[in-house]
Amino acid sequence: MYSELSYMKMKILLLTLTALYLLLRLVLGPIVTLVIATGVVAVFYYVTRDRANTFRISLLVPIPLLEMAYALILAVVAILLNDEYLRKIWRWRFIVFTGCDGSGKSTHAIETAKWLRELGIDAIHIHFFRHPLTTLLSKLKSKVVEVRPSEVMTYTPEFRQHIRRHILPRLRPFIQYVDLVLYICSKLILNFLRGRWVIADRYFYDYFIRFKCLGYPVPKFLEYLYYYVVPKPSLVIVFDVPPEVSYERRKEHPLWYYKLARREYLRLSKLLGAYVLETLDPFPTVQRRLCSLLTSTLLKPRRVAAQKSRQ
Asked: What is the pLDDT of residue 288?
């Protein structure tokens, strides 16, 4: 973090550059001054490697082309911007924990967010298991359309026939995608603006795999939407356990469902180049592996040291 002296020096530099660009515009003209201002940005970044303050200086580049009032407004914005806030934005990371139910995603997400906070990184875990639009439409449908009880029992042959025969169930994966875009993206944007890292417990991938395992019609382009037309995480980790273990831990689905789901998650890991983390070992052992993975992929050693020194 910059000291108070460095903070004041940066303000003085921004004021000096603003005055210099306004003077050079009168002497050399706007185009030449614009070239000089662009060169100043390149030199500053080359010397300091400070992206936050380079961004502040780059805000001054258009000054030679602007009227005085707009030029001064831009200068004031550059001066008032907080460089530490900008650094938090640039360092923001979004990590996805995905995998079969019973693989330990939620518990490890909570523990990982806590570990990051201990390193001085603002982090939160979010369980992305809300779909308000889909829930609302399902309630409206149940009041308007009468469905036989056997057709709403998820794992029955009648259920599979129902979702393939009627238009509304066939539309559900598409509606769910829109619902998730609205919900998940809003959460991510809010935390991005705060510079707060997000550990996502469940993501678009989990919903698509659930639809596929339950027998919903899922054309190839829908898979593309759920897997690729989504905010790209900094890191995707697939939590993996044998289906028999998932079944014993949760017993929420039949065994055949867990077998299908595991196959799809392993396929997902190959498609996205995601890390596969086996979670059969005791929780502390798996958590140590997880922290080591995050350190080697997202946390630079010097950054970890810097964060610890701030505590």
From this structure: 96
